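Honest question from a wet-lab person: if I give you the sequences of every part of a complex, can you actually get the arrangement of the whole thing, not just the pieces? Trying it with mine:
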Amino acid sequence: MTPLQNALGCLLALGCAYFFWKPKARLVGNAAILVGSLSLFVAYAFAVGDTEFYPFRLFALALCFSTTSLQKDRRRFLFLAQIFWLWIELFGNISLYYRGYEFAGTRLVAIAGLALCSTFLSRISKEMEFCLMVFWIAVWIFF
Amino acid sequence: MAKLLRILGAVLLVPGLMALCSALQVGPASWFTDEKSFWGMPICLFVFWIGLAHAGTLLSAVFLALGVRLDRRTALLAELSTLCSLSLAVVFPLVHLGVIENFYMVAPFVDSRGIFANAGSPLVWDFCCIAVYGLLSFLFFHNHLSSRNVPAQEIIRKPFAWLLLPLVLWVHSVVSLDFAATFVPEWQGAFFPVYFVVGAVYSGLALVNCLLCAEGYRVRLLEKLMIFSSWFIGVIWGWDYLTKGVFFTWAFVFAGLLPQLLWVGAVRDSRVGRLLVGLSVLLGLFLERLYLVSPSMSELPSLGLVDLGLVSFSAGFFLLFYFGLRRFVGCFVDEGGTFFGDVDGSEMEEDLSATEPAEGDEKYVNPFSSREFRTIRLPLLLGILAMLLFTVWCLNVPDTDLTLVNMLPLTYPVLALVAGISLWVSSGVLREISRRVLLVVVMFCVLFGVLAGIFFVGYPSEESGRQIRSLSLTERENNSEKEKNTERDIGLSSSALLWNARCSSCHGSDGKLNEKFVREYYPVPNTLTLSRLDSLGEDSLYQVISRGRTNMNSYEGRLTEKEIRGLVRYMRFLAGEE
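Yes, you can. This is the full assembly:
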């Protein structure tokens, strides 16, 4: 996968995250959007030739992005979304490590560090939302 | 209804026990074994029941941690089903291994005795995670029951839920690594942890919905979540198909298509309809596990009587154990009849409002200042400390080639174990227990510690060590002389043939372990390096082959002395001796 395709994937996650957790949306609507997004990520990952866990990583990234637009309990779900991403990366990397791939420790440390630091946030301002998104994109693109 | 199900369980258990005895006596030859993966029904049932064991902790702990309202009755039923499913699941790896008396070999003693458990094997991770999950689920269930009568204990329930939340994901992720870390192409996928967890959550929801049908009431939220889970698992099956070309048709029909019938009002509102849909999901996911574990199995008729008997055993055991335990708990704990028993749904709203915070009560709290955090911070600190000590110790044990990545899957279970027990103790539960019971518990803990200590220093292997040491120096010299005389009698090529026939299944044809065996089946010896062979000495190696050691069988009477000497020489050749 080329860096451009990877960056496009990140953009796709950002676009899908916009539709998550809309106020007044019913549970079934939210579930349909989540499943639809995951299907889109699956199609994209298959098209760009990744056969491992790329769509699920994209899904976790989209969940992280989506937490910035939540109305309540943002800090809790911000933390949980990052832990979800960390879990996918951790166990995905362990299984890849057993097949001879390099263990992407830097990415894990970056996500874990941000998840831990984000628990210190008190009220999340618009500027902080932007900083968080920049950090996630940086982790996605560079690590 | 419960009585009927207990009878059904007993009826299913009888042929099941016969099949279990046969499986234990005859071993893997008695059940269908896949020609590609060498796995069969026991592993399939293990994965299936471990998945079902997610129901309780997932629904109760995760909902509680996220502030989703779930009535106490449903949560307790789900937690009880977790304990029963876990008790059942642990039976099957023992059946699969065949050497039940050596089950302790999968405990992570980290090669402290030379030939011992391989902490880099997912099987060891399974043992740790499931043991910790089982214990903490029991404590969580106990706290839930006792907090009804002692409201002060309610304070640890939510922190406990936060501790269990990652453990739920962790346990099944580790089980998925049993597959993902192997050499079978169909199983290699970094998405397997997600796949397994979604499947486990889905099957857990289906089980709880079936149990609720048996109880005579329904929780709409759980039905909706079951439908949504079917969508997610459908997408994951799609990804599996795109990347590997694997598609489980019948699993898709039973667990992907049929659950959509719940969109039809007549099915949704009928108790039988909901029950049939729940059972259909369970059947579909069982078939999925079966096809997954045995990739070359394309048709069900290849299952034998023992396979079907083991399925019957699992279903019978669960029904009997679950509904028996439910009755027992109901009789001795449920004084007001409000925990278990027949309900018409009218008590639920009252129970819900009494146990869960009402919506809109939430206030903003500063970071790290909530009551839950203050409750859990000390146990968590202890857990982190224990995890660090364990990891540092493991990485520094001599003669192991473990890396930090090998240890990662064990870290959280160790943390959760120490933190969970500390939290439970801190709730004041010990004050409620009588002194006599407390004394018994303490004595049991001390005894367990002493046994573990004796075990760690290598008592069971003392016999073989004593036998080796009992050889007098003269005998050894004589043996050495004999060796010189007999060494030339058997050639290296003959020894190589013998090695490949007798030894390579565990030690590998190159003497560097059969990695497939290491990862999938059982902990095996260290790599045979020249330095290790030198440190053991040729006489010791002769004795090990001749008399056996811990997990290795004795070859006395099956190999001649010349052949054994030849194997020792071949070992040195493989290790790189010129």
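Two things worth pointing out. Chain B touches chain A at residues 66-67, 166, 169, 173, 176-177, 180-181, 188-194, 224, 228, 231-232, 235, 238-239, 242-244, 362, 364, 366-368, 405, 408-409, 519 (CB under 8 Å). Residues 338-347, 355-361, 459-468 of chain B have pLDDT under 50 and may be disordered.
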